Amino acid sequence: MYHTWMRYFTPSPVHHRLGLVCLGVGLQHGALPTVGPRTLDHHVAVVVSAGAGWYRGADGRRTAVTAPALIWLTPGTPHHYGADPGTGWDEAFVDFSGPATATYTELGYIEPDRPVVPLSDAAPARAAIARIARAARPGNPLLEVETGAVVHELLVALRRARADTNADGDPVLAALARDAFQPLSVAEHAARHGMTPAELRTAVRRAAGCSPKDYLLTVRLGRAKELLAATELPVSAVARRVGYDDPAYFSRLFTRRVGTAPIRFREQQGRSVPGGWSHRVPDPEHPPTIPPRSV
Predict the structure, then answer these.
(1) Going by C-beta distance under 8 Å and a sequence separation of 6 or more, which residues neighbour residue 132?
(2) Mind giving me the DSSP string for 79-98?
(3) Residue 170 banded pLDDT, cuts 50, 70, 90
(4) pLDDT, tens digit, for every residue of 31-78?
(5) What spatial distance separates the first Cα and last Cα of the chain, rounded to whole Å?
(6) Judging by beta carbons within 10 Å of its beta carbon (0-12, 13-18, 19+), is residue 216 exposed, middle or buried?
(7) How far apart are CA 221 and CA 226, in angstroms?
(8) For residue 97, pLDDT beyond 90
(9) How high does pLDDT run on average in the chain?
(10) Which string of DSSP letters, residue by residue, matches the chain?
(11) Which pLDDT does position 287 carry in this prediction?
(12) N or C terminus: fewer CB in 10 A for the chain?
């Protein structure tokens, strides 16, 4: 005995240009029928929140699936899976597509080579899927945009819920962010963690989807933007605070990566900050508390 509910959508070409579109959503539980063998032309995230079963991919190997778990179904990959007929399972699935799937795959959010992913908690992903199901009500004029937006949230929730991910964040990334403004090479950062440069590259690539050099640059430029937008520090002082002794090099790097020069960025942001410049350097770890206004 099993129960199933599902809805399918056909977003327009305009909606596909948003990057991600939701093609369908389903909620099922019980001793569900076996799926496949089959091959799809789009992605599906199958979230198993209770019960157990199995998955078989193109290589023919049978992999046990024990909740909470995620099954990735990716385009062009033959697959075959099912719930244990004795226990059944609780399943929620989302079909999706769009050009942004290539970037999410490159960043490691979608893992074609790891079709069965143990999760630490399926609740956040189930909550996102429930929002898609609610948006599927008849006559919703925002259906395609609303469901597409939640697919982005679902991918983040699934990435955070991996059983091999620390709930408090990745310690390697946290340490790199803490030391990002020091004049250290990638090899020196690796040595601080007892790693080789190759091991550090692998760890950062898996956690952040980029190289250590790019991750450090992102942290430095983010801090530089904060200082340019919220203080009157000279550009040379901003450069030194984020780890660059050569202001000219910092300006060229900033311009190339951000698309505008530091001075121009400050002019743009300064006009948009209510009250103008602050006399305090912003602390990224402790944002200020804004008291409620009296009416």
Answers:
(1) 22, 25, 94, 147, 150, 151, 154
(2) EEEEE-TTT-EEEEEEEEE-
(3) confident
(4) 999 998 999 999 999 999 999 999 999 888 999 999 999 999 999 999
(5) 59
(6) buried
(7) 9
(8) yes
(9) 88
(10) -EEEEEEE----HHHHTTS-EEEEEEEEEESPPPEEEE--SSEEEEEEEEEEEEEE-TT--EEEEESSEEEEE-TT--EEEEE-TTT-EEEEEEEEE-THHHHHHHTTSS-TT--EEEBS-SHHHHHHHHHHHHHTSTT-TTHHHHHHHHHHHHHHHHHHTBTTS-TT--HHHHHHHHTTTS---HHHHHHHTT--HHHHHHHHHHHHSS-HHHHHHHHHHHHHHHHHHH----HHHHHHHTT-S-HHHHHHHHHHHHSS-HHHHHHHHHHHSTT---SS---TTSPPP-PPPP-
(11) 62
(12) C
Q: Is the pLDDT of residue 273 over 60?
A: no
d(CA 109, CA 107): 6
pTM metric for this prediction: 0.73
CA–chain centroid gap for 282, Å, is 26
Q: How confident is the model at residue 119 (pLDDT cuts 50, 70, 90)?
A: very high
- The first and second tokens of residue 225, run together, are 């933007």
Contact 93, 47 (CB under 8 A): yes
Helices 171-178 and 197-208: crossing angle in degrees, nearest 10, is 110
pLDDT at 293 over 70: no
203 vs 239, which has greater pLDDT? Answer: 239
Taking the C-alpha atoms of residue 229 and residue 236, their distance in angstroms, rounded to an integer, is 15
